[in-house]
Design brief:
The chain is α/β, with parallel strands linked by helices and 256 residues long. The chain folds into 2 domains: 110 residues, Spore Coat Polysaccharide Biosynthesis Protein SpsA, Chain A (Alpha-Beta Complex), CATH 3.90.550; 89 residues, no CATH class. The protein is built from 9 helices and 9 strands. It has a 7-stranded mixed β-sheet with strand order 3-2-1-4-8-5-9. Helix 3 crosses helix 6. The longest helix is centred in the middle third of the chain and has 13 residues. The radius of gyration is 18 Å and the shape is globular. The protein starts with 7 loop residues before the first strand and ends with a helix.
């Protein structure tokens, strides 16, 4: 039975895994007086489009923390292999919703405005099944870094490909290409909006060929022939992956 039966146009789900590989327990760090998870939830609650914000987790301590600061919680299987799988499982419990936004729990400084832009782009285009974010790359080191995922999209904002390689590849390099307007190179930002039908179907599909090579889930969507809309934002988000990331976040938060 659905956890929440009311039909909603847009729901935001924060998948929250306790044991991160690079920074264990990061969602429960609280040097600012609040946990990373609570900061992310508060930012999510400032959005306009989502009518409901929930946290999806398989961990009792994460669930306890979330309930303490007033968040709704959906318990999911510990067997979920990714945040997408966890959001998909939660979507199956929350009743009808046209659009489901996936915001990772380690994004405490996410701008609510860009989340709304993401949702609005998908609501405005019935032909698209998914939407995500990107920001210009102006640094060659970042462009060549495989941990920085790149995306290319057409003039209508439809994703053509995602890669860990520098795309587009420039045969005859010129440093000025990094300053071109509009930007030639874009970093993918891992915040997603899905149509419910795609999200539920995606979790049941086997990984695609290029997804397995690049280790990028969003390629599964393109390999299925679906359209992913890309909304360009001015600056990258400040997700927390390392202890250094968290220290910088604490410094910014306490200074503000």
């Amino acid at each position: 039975m659905a956890l929440i039966s009311t039909a909603r146009r847009c729901v935001l789900v924060i998948p929250a895994r306790r044991r991160s590989t690079r920074l264990p327990e990061k969602l429960l760090l609280r040097k600012t007086g609040k946990t990373v998870l609570e900061h992310t939830y508060e930012a999510a609650c400032q959005t306009r489009c989502p009518e409901l914000v929930l946290i999806a987790t398989d961990d009792a301590e994460i669930a306890r923390e979330a309930r303490q600061f007033g968040a709704g919680v959906v318990m999911t299987s510990p067997d979920c292999l990714s945040g997408t799988d966890r959001v998909a499982e939660a979507a199956g419990q929350i009743g009808p919703a046209e659009i489901i936004i996936n915001l990772q729990g380690d994004e405490p400084e996410i701008d609510p405005v860009v989340v709304d832009q993401l949702a609005e782009s998908l609501l405005a285009d019935p032909s698209a099944a998914m939407a995500t974010l990107a920001t210009p790359i102006r640094d060659r080191t970042l462009l060549d870094d495989p941990s920085c995922v790149k995306v290319v999209f057409d003039p209508h904002g439809r994703a053509m490909y995602f890669s860990r390689s520098a795309i587009p590849h420039v045969r005859d390099w010129d440093q000025d290409y990094l300053e071109t307007e509009p930007a030639l190179f874009h970093q993918h930002i891992g915040v997603y909006a899905y149509r419910r039908e795609l999200l539920l179907r995606l979790a049941q599909l086997p990984p695609g060929r290029f997804e397995q090579l690049e280790k990028l889930e969003q390629l599964r969507v393109l390999e299925q022939g679906e359209t992913i809309l890309v909304t360009e934002i001015d600056e990258p988000t400040h997700g927390i992956d390392t202890l250094e990331d968290y220290a910088a976040f604490v410094q910014r938060k306490l200074a503000g």
